[in-house]
């Protein structure tokens, strides 16, 4: 990969493209989204105990890890917009689904 998003180069992963679109859409809706890569921001992994524990326990096989408000939503796959938005809606509604 040649860039921090991973959405570049001759062999672009369609899942990364779709997830990048999801991140952009969520940001445009006013949500704070932080996206980190072990290669480009290892400090973020050291500062996030939940993610660090997963990487220490299972290596990188569980990456990517999608977290919302310090709660893991998915591991080993990119969540799609609808899945992320449903979790956000549940949190905003006071539910913890």
How is the secondary structure organized here?
Layout: H1 14-28, H2 42-47, H3 49-58, E1 65-68, E2 71-75, H4 81-92
Characterization of the model:
With 97 residues, the protein is mainly alpha-helical. It has a single domain, classed as Glutaredoxin (3-Layer(aba) Sandwich). The protein has four helices and two strands. It has helices at residues 14-28, 42-47, 49-58, 81-92; strands at 65-68, 71-75. Strands 1-2 form a two-stranded antiparallel sheet. Strand 1 and strand 2 form a beta hairpin. The protein is globular.
Global outline: globular
**Termini separation:** 35 Å
Assigned CATH superfamily? Glutaredoxin
Structural class: mainly alpha
**So how many helices?**
4
In the CATH classification, which architecture applies? Answer: 3-Layer(aba) Sandwich
Number of strands: 2
Which fold does the CATH topology refer to? Glutaredoxin
What is the average per-residue confidence, as pLDDT, rounded to a whole number?
86
Give the total of domains. 1
User: What is the gyration radius calculated from CA atoms?
Assistant: 14 Å
* Fraction in helix: 40-55%
Strand order of the largest sheet: 1-2
**How much β-strand is present in the residues?**
5-15%
Low-pLDDT runs: none
Summarize the biggest pleated sheet.
Answer: 2 strands, antiparallel
CATH class descriptor = Alpha Beta
Q: Could you give the order of the helices and strands? A: HHHEEH
